[in-house]
# Entry
Amino acid sequence: MRSLVDALIHVHPSADIRLYFSTPTAEPWHASCHAQHLHVVRMVLDGATYAETFRTSADLDSVIEALAKAVSPMPVNHCSLKATSPRRLGPFDPLPDLLDANRSHAGLSALKAAKRAILSAVQGEERR
# Structure
């Protein structure tokens, strides 16, 4: 990811590049990966065994944290698919609000707070 970010900066040095990820919860992540592995490799594990064997691979919050450190100081935003799936635009729903926040003239700390509020609102709707 760092190489991709470096290439984007090289091609568009004045661009305000930000990364946004939407990730599934562990169960659908494992189901998707399991299905893909069944199709492309000689694997014969059943879904439950696969999920247990690769349990740690579904810790996508840690993956996003590591990715954010790797591309720092580039901003990284993250929202769960579960939170965004019922919304009108699905995982793309928070993007217009995040883009509007980027266009504001707020200071960096105010901008970060605004983005956290946008994503927290989406995540909060997930818990209702």
Notes: The helical segments are 2-11, 26-40, 47-53, 60-71, 81-84, 94-103, 108-127.
